[in-house]
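Hi all, posting the design record for the shared folder.

TITLE: backbone redesign
STEP: 1 of 1
STRUCTURE INPUT:
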């Protein structure tokens, strides 16, 4: 008995002593573990490390760690415009939207009209992010996002031409890294539009793998403004560069070498960013691409052995070789705003105009939106748009609070552009041939045509989903992984061991904590989770379900890293699915936050329920996909037991809920107005969107009269009754004496507007032949 107790004490006691006494733990456990960790740690280049470590962690960190604190979310302030920003939205933005005719831009001018360019420059549109002290508008991220969103409801050339100078490029880089002299010279010029910027990173050989650019500069001496100075001879071949054909200030990224050691000991200095005036000798700009016939300026730029002084480097010679880190550090702001805003804008327009069209356009004697099949598409349009806009606004608000959320910027870039693809596709289906035939009356065809641009730029979507969202999230959002990696790479091995020991054992406690939490929440259906924030009672269940999902996700993320290690980088399908779970949780958080921030508008509740249920379902499907495809089946089984012991818990939104959502899009009033608050609404009913708006209101006002006409017809009082077409019904009912003069006039007016809405453009058969006969293009194969 005594011996048995002694053995038991040793078996239990020794491991406890080893675990509790730091010196023993480090010597016996942590040191060998660190050796293994160093071996399995994926090789990482400096550029990869810069990309992974850039930016800050924000709300996504809470979701990643398994126990989101809802009070933190509730405490984020609702983004609001200042009086000056609101006045700009109400005046300058409205004016410039009214100045642009997108058909004229895309079909005739192939550019914005000169007066629009002038208006944009003179009114500071190109310098929204530049502080007032440098002559810019100094707008918040939220105001910047609001402007781009509204411009996008009018014309892509308009929004992109404004978006790009305010995104990652010369102004942003100068603000963070420019020398005082560079700031003083360029920022006021950029703010006034005296300089139009472009930023050239992409080359034919390096697209997604942008750090692999072959463009190079060599440090050398040369003549500049009559003096022999230290400079660099730069050669580049870039393509796809937005605004390059018309820019006056070209930002260039290239790799700088110093073979003669004129700057120091290093041969390969690294990626460097410089600003070069477009008329500097040897700079070639001016030719253009046609990105899916979007008419914002975009084109190649070249230079061969172009000598430029070192002062052209952004931040001066001290910043030579820091270009990649500078770009990565600044990426989050632009990527959080540009595409999320422009693509939400397209969807806001779709929601507003297609919802109205579905009520104006009748077939089989009913508005097409009343058919269940069309209703399904309208539901997706409304639900996704609500969620996208919520994510856009909350993310911009985060930037204004000082966050530089790199993982969130990838989430919103990917998910908003993908949802925009779905929304605009649905919109096209609902409006049928009206969307197919291009012309001045087509309000959606160009958005449809140009959607893939957003998918490809600022990190192509497949790469963003497969490699970035979870890949970067796992390292940045996890409380211990980055610490472990840094410890493992520490050149001072003893210091590294202490840091690793601390991080690793905290990590172990973290995993067990999350596993217990995930299991507890799964078996109780998360009903015991307290939501420590004042939230709408009707939405509380979603917070609990998110808490459950977050805990399950945290365990799965750790198990995936533990089991697959560096291999996870190549297992893109798994990484993508884990990223999907994180992303859906972020989108749901934004949606719930929007509902609170907007004062719990119960009329909008159906949109929240639909979009949250849809996203929960997507998250669950992605999670199931991880479990079904996890290479280690034992680990997959354990994960299932912990996180999904009772099987699926989320279900797709019901048809009845979808019906309520779609109805909101076809009903004038609060919900529709809030959903499409950023849509530019032209005054004139001669404008295609203005006409839909007018026809929509007229159609609704006439619905009682339509019922009256139908009753007259039913009673057989119309000449030629039963009519087999609707076009002549008004006339027939009037002729039969069933309508007053006023009623007849009201119906006729509705018919005129409706005819205008359903009309499509036609052209002479040889329209455009002159353009086709003039071979201006230099083809890709020479
Ligand atoms: C209209 C337009 C405007 C642009 N504006 C600018 C600009 O102003 N300045 C600038 O420097 N650049 C600009 N770009 C370039 C843009 O950033 C690149 O097009 C983008 O990075 C993708 O590169 P790529 O087109 O060469 O595609 P590729 O790199 O050839 O990629 C092809 C496909 O492979 C996928 N892929 C690649 N690697 C991986 C991976 N590891 N895992 C999974 N999938 C992967 C990508 O997602 C993509 O789907 C612009 C591009 C366009 C089309």
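Okay, here is what came back for every position:
SEQUENCE:
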């Amino acid at each position: 008995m005594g011996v048995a107790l002694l053995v038991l004490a040793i078996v239990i006691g020794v491991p406890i002593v080893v675990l509790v006494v730091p010196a023993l733990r480090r010597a016996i456990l942590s040191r060998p573990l660190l050796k293994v960790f160093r071996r399995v740690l994926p090789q990482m280049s400096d550029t990869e490390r810069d990309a992974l470590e850039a930016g800050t962690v924000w709300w996504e960190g809470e979701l990643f760690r398994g126990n989101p604190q809802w009070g933190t979310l509730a405490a984020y302030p609702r983004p609001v415009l200042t009086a000056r920003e609101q006045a700009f939205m109400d005046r300058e933005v409205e004016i410039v939207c009214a100045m642009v005719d997108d058909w004229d831009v895309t079909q005739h001018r192939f550019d914005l009209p000169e007066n629009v360019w002038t208006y944009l420059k003179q009114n500071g549109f190109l310098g929204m992010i530049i502080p007032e002290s440098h002559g810019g508008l100094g707008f918040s991220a939220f105001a910047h996002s609001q402007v781009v969103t509204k411009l996008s409801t009018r014309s892509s050339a308009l929004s992109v031409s404004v978006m790009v100078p305010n995104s990652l490029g010369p102004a942003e880089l100068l603000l963070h890294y420019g020398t005082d002299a560079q700031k003083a010279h360029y920022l006021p010029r950029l703010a006034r539009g005296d300089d139009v910027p472009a930023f050239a990173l992409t080359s034919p050989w390096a697209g997604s793998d942008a750090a692999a650019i072959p463009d190079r500069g060599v440090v050398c001496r040369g003549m500049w403004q009559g003096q022999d100075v230290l400079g660099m001879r730069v050669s580049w071949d870039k393509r796809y560069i937005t605004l390059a054909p018309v820019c006056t200030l070209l930002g260039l990224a290239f790799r700088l070498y110093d073979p003669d050691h004129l700057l120091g000991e290093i041969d390969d200095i690294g990626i460097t960013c410089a600003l070069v005036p477009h008329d500097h000798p040897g700079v070639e700009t001016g030719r253009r691409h046609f990105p899916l016939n979007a008419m914002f300026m975009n084109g190649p730029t070249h230079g061969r052995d172009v000598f430029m002084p070192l002062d052209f480097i952004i931040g001066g010679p001290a910043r030579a070789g820091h270009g990649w880190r500078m770009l990565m550090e600044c990426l989050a702001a632009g990527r959080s705003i540009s595409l999320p805003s422009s693509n939400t804008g397209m969807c806001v327009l779709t929601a507003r105009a297609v919802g109205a069209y579905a009520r104006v356009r009748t077939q089989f004697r009913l508005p097409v939106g009343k058919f269940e099949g069309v209703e399904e598409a309208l539901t997706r349009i409304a639900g996704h748009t609500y969620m996208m806009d919520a994510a856009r606004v909350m993310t911009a608000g985060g930037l204004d609070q000082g966050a530089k959320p790199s993982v969130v910027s990838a989430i919103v870039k990917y998910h908003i552009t993908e949802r925009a693809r779905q929304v605009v596709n649905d919109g096209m289906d609902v409006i049928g041939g009206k969307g197919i035939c291009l012309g001045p009356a087509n309000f959606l065809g160009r958005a449809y045509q140009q959607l893939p641009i957003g998918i490809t730029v600022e990190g192509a979507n497949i790469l963003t989903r497969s490699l970035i969202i979870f890949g970067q999230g796992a390292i940045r959002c996890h409380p211990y992984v980055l610490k472990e990696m840094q410890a493992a790479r520490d050149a001072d091995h003893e210091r590294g061991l202490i840091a690793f020991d601390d991080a690793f054992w905290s990590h172990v406690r973290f995993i067990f904590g999350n596993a217990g939490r995930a299991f507890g929440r799964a078996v109780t259906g998360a009903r015991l989770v307290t939501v420590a924030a004042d939230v709408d009672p009707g939405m509380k269940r979603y917070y609990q379900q998110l808490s459950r999902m977050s805990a399950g996700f945290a365990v799965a993320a750790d198990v995936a890293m533990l089991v697959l290690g560096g291999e996870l980088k190549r297992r893109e399908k798994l990484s993508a699915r884990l990223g999907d779970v994180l992303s859906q949780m972020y989108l749901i958080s934004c949606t719930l936050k929007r509902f609170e921030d907007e004062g719990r508008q119960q009329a909008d509740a159906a949109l929240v329920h639909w979009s949250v249920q849809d996203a929960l379902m997507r998250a669950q499907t992605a999670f199931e996909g991880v479990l079904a495809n996890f290479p280690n089946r034992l680990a997959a089984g354990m994960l299932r037991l912990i996180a999904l012991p009772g099987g699926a818990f989320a279900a797709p939104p019901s048809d009845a809920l979808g019906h309520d959502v779609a109805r909101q899009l076809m009903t004038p009033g609060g919900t529709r107005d809030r959903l499409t608050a950023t849509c530019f609404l032209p005054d004139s009913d001669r404008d295609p969107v203005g006409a839909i708006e007018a026809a929509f209101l007229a159609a609704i006002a006439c619905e009682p009269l339509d019922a009256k006409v139908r009753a007259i017809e039913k009673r057989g009082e119309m000449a030629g009754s039963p009519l087999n077409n609707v076009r002549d019904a008004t006339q027939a009912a009037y002729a039969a004496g069933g309508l007053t003069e006023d009623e007849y006039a009201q119906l006729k007016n509705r018919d005129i507007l409706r005819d205008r809405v359903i009309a499509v453009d036609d052209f002479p058969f040889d329209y455009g032949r002159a353009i086709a006969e003039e071979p201006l293009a230099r083809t890709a194969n020479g």
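COMMENT: Strands lie at 197-200, 216-224, 227-242, 249-257, 268-277, 298-309, 362-363, 366-367.
Let me know if anyone wants the other runs.
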